Structure formats: C-alpha cells, structure tokens
Amino acid sequence: MTNLTHSVRICISKGISFDAPSMLTVRVGKGPKPKEFIVHESFLTSHSEFFRRAMNGKWAETESRIVKLPKDNPRTFAVYLNFIYTGRLTTMRKTQEELSAVDCDTFIRHIESEYQEIFELYVLAEKLQDVSAKDAALTAAIDVTQMESSDGKWRIPSFDTCNNVYEGTPEGSPARRLITDMCSGLPMAGIVLYIRAKSVHKDFVNDLTTALDKTRPVKRGHGGNVAVRNGVKAYLEEA
Q: The BTB domain covers which part of the protein (predicted)?
C-alpha cells in the first residue's frame, strides 16, 4: 500500500470555514475611525495565546466577536496578519541589489525603516503571545544585518527602535539580546556615539555592557592592564 507522507488531503473538520461566524473583527489604532480587519478566528487563536484567551470564556469579545487593540499600529498588525496567513513578513521595500545602487543615506533610511517594522512586529507578537511571530521577526532582523550599503557596511537599528524594544519587552528578551549583540560588534567609537547621541533605555546600557564583556574580554593578569603594559615612562613628562 502506498504511503502518502505528504498527502494534499486533510479531514473535512480541519478545513477553513468561510462562514461569517468563523470570522473576527479586530479594530486596531486610536481615534474615531480605527482600522478594522476581518480575520479567521482559527488563524488567530492557533497562533496567539492572547486571542485564544479572548475568545475562550465569558469575555465581551466572545459575544461581540470584536477585539480592540487601540494602542497598536494598524500597519504592524497587517504585517502580523500576513505572517499568520502566508508565513512571510511584508517589510522589505527594496532588494539588496536595488539598495546597493543607492547612496549611503538612502540605504540607511530604508534599513532603519525595515528594522523599525520588524521590531514593532516583535513587540506586538510579545503582547499577543505568539512565539512563532517573534522568532520570524528576529530571523528577519538578522537577514537585514547582512545587507550592505555601497560602502560595504551594514547598519544597526535606530535609537528609537532600540528604545521601543526595551519599552515593549521583558528583561532577558531575545530581542533585547539581539540588539545589544548587534551594537557590540561596532567599533568602540561608534558605540560611544550611539549611546551619547540620544537618551537610551537604562537597561540597554546595562545589557550592552554585558555583551561587550563577552565579545571583548579583559585578559587575565597584567595582560589586560594597559597602564602596566605601557610602562610608567609613557605617562611621565620628564622621562
């Protein structure tokens, strides 16, 4: 008997329903006219613990079939929906080939914008308790780090993106670790400028210090003591 390990057939009970009762309305954003998304309940609840709990019990959302996300960005939620439906993140506006042809300032704007969308998705997925979306966001972020501008350099997320991640994630978050690891690879002059240019989250500074200790460990004994290695004469005006 033939073993169909990759059969295209599934049980009828597992098929997607397109009846109205199977759909949810998700209202995203502030103001008198938030953006409304009509989504299959099964897609949301199979990915997100937040939606699973909202639709399982005696909550108002269970009866109204309307879930409100007034503090979130409709664009970010659209990226999230694209992911749960297709497994892809709609964050890339230009290919590596196209970006290689633009000047450095244009490259930086595009890359920082994509980093922002990717990490905003991560913060949303943290709220919605969707591990697969968080992992997809971090995978995408690492992809972006491999894109180089015309001068052969890669870029890191902006200060605002860094702060948004720290405001929207708990201590020890993988997204926090990724950002600090990105920054720890910069030249020291770049790291100092990064910290001094704008006000950054205090936890970021602490995490970056830890990351730097790992990537640039001080040697044991006098090997790490620059002053001793240079010798006292290096500091005397009258040698």
A: 22-93
